[in-house]
């Protein structure tokens, strides 16, 4: 039994999910500021479509994620942390507390249908919430509204009203769900993943991790895949020598290949060509490249770089 094998199992990389609900019951969320990347993450876990009872909204680390509708309680749990963290920047942009509070009922009034940001800003102006569309103010106001549980963002990037019909849950429950998705892991890892301040994660309950053994599983993971994003220290899975090839700055992760949980290569798509750059020996990615091609609906050709 190894920690990496357990993490691969928890992330449904070595034990694929049967459908969307099964996937999100296990992994809790997929990072989704980039929807093609979120779809690649689902593919690597056995799910070919993200149709279903999913909501795209701001959650862990104040970042866009896909969540099952039954798990929207996390918005109410984490939202106040990110609202407080963003207050200074909002004030710099002229978004006073008073204006932000007035904007919430205004958003409920004008969001009668899914809207793109530019149209939403125009409609807000019509009801007295005037924002400079060329500034960062619209983005920060909409993030405030999302963290307040008022709106979310569709997979098509439109904004729409959010309705949360979940019983409130606390940090202990989020810790349990995190451990189910990422265990074995530490409270420090949980702080990094969730974005919660460390003072809020003391006295966490014990959680048992499922046993697992290495199985030779090879997976090609895309940008922002959650596998590496769940940990403060990624060195067990990613050799620090190769980390700059994967972690290129700004929270960006280059598409990478994992074998039994260890990152062994990076890859990129160039049309129908899938170019793989191994760190050492060439991993056996032929089946993954073929599946990736079917998923992307291209006749994928493997090349080594």
Automatic annotation (TrEMBL):
InterPro entries linked to this entry: AlkZ-like
This protein's name: Winged helix DNA-binding protein
One family name in Pfam for this protein: AlkZ-like
């Amino acid at each position: 039994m190894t920690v990496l094998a357990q993490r691969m199992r928890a992330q449904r990389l070595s034990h694929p999910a049967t459908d969307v609900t099964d996937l999100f019951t296990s992994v809790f969320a997929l990072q989704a500021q980039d929807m093609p990347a979120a779809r690649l993450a689902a593919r690597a876990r056995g799910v070919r479509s993200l149709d279903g009872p999913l909501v795209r909204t701001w959650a862990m680390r104040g970042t866009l994620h896909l969540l099952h509708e039954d798990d929207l309680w996390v918005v109410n749990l984490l939202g106040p942390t990110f609202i407080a963290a963003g207050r200074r920047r909002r004030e710099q942009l002229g978004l006073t507390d008073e204006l932000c509070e007035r904007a919430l009922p205004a958003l409920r009034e004008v969001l009668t249908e899914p809207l793109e940001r530019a149209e939403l800003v125009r409609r807000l102006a019509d009801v007295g919430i005037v924002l400079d569309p060329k500034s960062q103010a619209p983005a920060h106001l909409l993030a405030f509204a999302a963290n307040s549980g008022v709106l979310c963002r569709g997979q098509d990037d439109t904004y729409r009203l959010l309705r949360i019909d979940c019983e409130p849950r606390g940090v202990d429950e989020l810790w349990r769900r995190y451990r189910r998705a990422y265990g074995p892991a530490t409270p420090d890892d949980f702080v990094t993943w969730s974005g919660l301040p460390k003072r809020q994660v003391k006295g966490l309950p014990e959680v048992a991790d499922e046993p697992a053994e290495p199985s030779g599983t090879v997976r090609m993971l895309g940008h922002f895949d959650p596998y590496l994003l769940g940990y403060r220290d990624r060195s067990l899975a990613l050799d620090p020598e190769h980390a700059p090839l994967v972690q290129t700055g700004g929270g960006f992760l280059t598409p990478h290949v994992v074998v039994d949980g260890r990152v062994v290569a990076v890859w990129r798509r160039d049309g129908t060509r899938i170019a793989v750059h191994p760190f050492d020996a060439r991993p056996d990615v032929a089946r993954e490249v073929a599946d990736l091609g079917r998923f992307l609906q291209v006749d994928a050709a493997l090349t080594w770089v």
